[in-house]
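Sample intake — Chaperone protein HtpG
Collected from: Candidatus Profftella armatura
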Amino acid sequence: MKNSEPESIIKKKQTLGFQAEVKQLLQLMIHSLYSNKEIFLRELISNASDALDKLRFELINNKFISTDNSDLEIIITFDKDNRTINISDNGIGMNRNDIITNLGTIAKSGTQEFFSKLSGDQKKDASLIGQFGVGFYSAFIVAKKIIVKSRHVNSPITEGVLWESEGSGNFTIETINKTNRGTDITLYLRSKEEEYLSSWKLKSIIRKYSDHISFPIKMYKETWDEEKKETVISNNEFEVINQASALWARGKSEITDEQYIEFYKHISHDFEKPLIYTHNHVEGRNEYIQLLYIPSRAPYDLWDRNKRNGIKLYVKRVFIMDDAEQLLPTYLRFVKGVIDSNNLPLNVSREILQESRDVKVIREGSTKRILNILEDLSTSNDKEKIIKYANFWKEFGQVIKEGIGEDNNNKERISKLLRFASTNNDSDIQNVSLMDYIKRMKEGQNKIYYITGENYKSVKNSPHLEIFQKKSIEVLLLTDRVDEWMLSFIPKFENKELVSIAKGNLDLGNLENESDKKQQKETETKFQNLIEEMKKILSEKAKDVRVTYRLTDSPACLVVDENEPSGNMIRMLKAAGQETPNSKPILEINPNHALIQRIQLNNDNIHNWSHILFDQALLAENGVLNDPMNFVKRLNEMLLIK
Ligand code: ADP
Ligand code: MG
């Protein structure tokens, strides 16, 4: 939002409606987060802290001149008689336009997706909301009315704003005089929420969720009144409730697990615990602190191209920017955290970051840390770690695969992190590493075999697997969209070639013996004529027709040449509206199949049979027929032959 307002700004009280999504979110939140309603305070403090961070940054960069030199702080008070809680900050504040946008709409990327995923099932939706980030609106869980008074650091005293809402359909907004900079939020509590009108309760919530906030959070001091024999709350003296120092700058041993977790929730807007984190003070020529978290769950907008990265950049404890995408490679975009550099200048911009050598060092260091913790999880025998890695792979495996193509320096390390579904498993679970595969290789086997396809069922039942099943050779089953692209970057792993069993000639290498090969030659001669004829008939559809030994149960299958994209790849490209190479597949027929043998003996209907075999093979790999009616017609004709 721009901070300069036009002269003609409307000053009278206005009633505006919430964006439809806000109404929906408010409804949902009140119902599904009720069991954890105290988080409203965490959210409001988190916003106040962000506002202070932004102010400090702007002051350093001289964009705003503030005559108010008061210390940056958050003050929390309550009023038992009026049943209100007040949260004030002297941060950057909001002007009229800011407030209308920020507290009347949801401006997050992926909002659409979020709403489309809501199921109506309260439990499921509650965790989804948590994932989406609850934010300001969560205050309506405990408040029947909220008044926000705010003044942007750049607005004159006469241009404060008062926002008021009961959280139903709309809010009002009017211009007021506001002497102090920043934002004051007053919650008018619902009935039955009086437990929050207590110093003890508020303090314990602050300590539980907001201890890590680096600005002081203050409340009026309580003292023991000897005469009255009770605690009285001072009305002029404050005490600081939290530690008020940047959590990441503290020593590891001074931080509890709970504090790490609450800090994560603050920076990530995630409701759930992180899966794992890593915290390091890096010394030397390039000094920085990194506190990085891997979430337990993929965000709903993981695949949103506009999604911002989750790293906050600080320089010497001063907040510089959110979403510092230069600090980690794209394939680690799910990582959240803070990087605090001692070397970068305070006025660093995104453009400078792009060029900076210090940033490059930080990015490499941070990538290494993340790969380290993943390596540790993935190679451990510890039960908890095994579960964590399986969880990680389920949520982020597809993104990590992008790293194979994106991060050439770490390709080796990343390829060890990969997990696949395999014929060695009974289910579609992806838990087989390339290392596991190699350990199970048959004697004489020197290749890693895989098949790609659209979904587990289609690859699991693919005719291409038949010979491998017969010989008990393991095949990796790849069904993620990125797989084929990724595989083009790893032709070999540990000196073993990775080969698609649906491409090129079947090459079982040393797994075949000489007498097999001799017999195959003889069969090929026997089928020569049939093959030639089929080739002519199918010249528009198939590049070639040949005899194969990869099938045991099916009469035919399709393959492509080694260096050509697979049928699956072509279908994906088509679905994405991309141009597709004009290549034709090869039809392979199984000389041992009764159907093929019959056609070989009696080729009266060879025209129909050729087309039926081709179309069948296409259907078997989940392909789409060009002319399904003709297929049905031909098949029926064949069925009617006596
Ligand atoms: P989020 O913090 O995830 O952006 P919220 O719903 O918590 O979402 O807040 C919405 C926006 O309202 C914030 O991004 C910020 O721009 C603005 N805002 C909220 N509280 C304050 C505050 N105390 N001072 C300044 N701006 C605020
Ligand atoms: Mg917030």
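Post-analysis note: The first strand starts at residue 14 and ends at 17.
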